[in-house]
Design a protein that fits this description.
mainly alpha; 0% strand
Length: 304
């Protein structure tokens, strides 16, 4: 049995790179949205990643067929995964990349509540409920306030869509943990997620007239970054780290992502960061960290 080791300097460097890539994806999507709609770019990136994953699976001569009892849960996972990125892509049409990243990473809150309801061993303690209250207070604070020139109904709509994307991510975690999918190889689940997302998001893009593309060098670089860097290599790096290091410590470091997302949005896209959003985001991250702490019973609440 492989013993997972605590984090070392190499693992920290890998996690910093992973978080930087994941934080950059919303910023890059937003940077080229005039030449390609975010939701269409997400569809194309999953098509690229699906092709690369199929080549990897074929090289390793492995199977992606699921047992009959796992097919419906896998379909639900694919639908929820698709819904998450459909909501995120639409959110980026209205709100900033920094806002979208922070609200997307509220997913552990929704996952913890769902797991508390569905799985007795995942019951939360008092500290975790304090974290839930703190995070939701931060959401309210992040949604309200700001001056009219930078914070209006359109941004609120985008923030709400990003929050719903985070909820969809959280529900995905609950479905994986509550069904037989939690013991399956990651590449099997990822295959069905990518396949359904590519098809549905592609159809949505054409139906909503967002499938136009202006193939500038920036768009081509963005597609390469998302299809190869984000949806393929970054996830492979994450799964590799999970096989060698303690998941709880990796999960805590992953919360560098929303912080980096806000900073990158401000630096790269000149996005204004409102004081109420900074305070609210701090409450959200503090609440998420409390939720992910080990409960008194010795069990750890799952991190999305």
């Amino acid at each position: 049995m492989l013993v997972r080791q605590p984090l070392d300097l190499f693992a920290f460097g890998c996690m910093l790179l992973f978080c930087l890539v994941m934080a950059s994806q919303q910023v890059v999507l937003k940077a080229v949205e005039e030449d390609i709609a975010p939701v269409f770019q997400i569809a194309l990136r999953y098509g690229i990643a699906l092709l690369l994953l199929m080549m990897l699976i074929r090289t390793k001569r492995t199977q992606v067929r699921l047992a009959p009892e796992n097919r419906w849960p896998a379909l639900w996972i694919g639908v929820l995964f698709t819904l998450e990125f459909l909501l995120l892509g639409e959110a980026l049409r209205f709100t900033t990349a920094g806002h979208a990243t922070v609200f997307l990473y509220t997913s552990p809150i929704f996952a913890a509540i769902g797991l508390h309801i569905k799985i007795p061993s995942e019951r939360m303690g008092i500290l975790q409920w304090v974290g839930i209250a703190l995070a939701f207070s931060g959401m309210v604070l992040a949604f309200i306030g700001g001056d009219a020139s930078s914070f209006g109904a359109v941004v609120l709509l985008g923030d709400l869509l990003a929050l719903l994307a985070g909820a969809s991510w959280g529900v995905t975690t609950v479905v994986v943990r509550a069904t037989g999918l939690s013991v399956l190889p990651a590449k099997q689940i990822l295959f069905y997620q990518l396949l359904i997302a590519f098809v549905v998001l592609g159809l949505w893009s054409f139906w909503s007239e967002q499938a136009s593309i202006n193939l500038t060098p920036e768009v081509l670089a963005s597609l390469a970054f998302h299809g190869i860097g984000v949806a393929f290599l970054a996830f492979l790096l994450w799964f590799w780290l999970l096989t060698r290091y303690k998941a709880s410590q990796l999960g805590i470091l992953s919360f560098m992502t929303p912080v980096l997302g806000v900073l990158l949005g401000s630096w790269w896209l000149n996005e204004q960061i409102e004081l109420n959003f900074i305070i609210g985001a701090g409450f959200i991250l503090a609440g998420v960290l409390l939720v992910c702490r080990r409960p008194a019973s010795g069990r750890r609440v799952a991190v999305a």
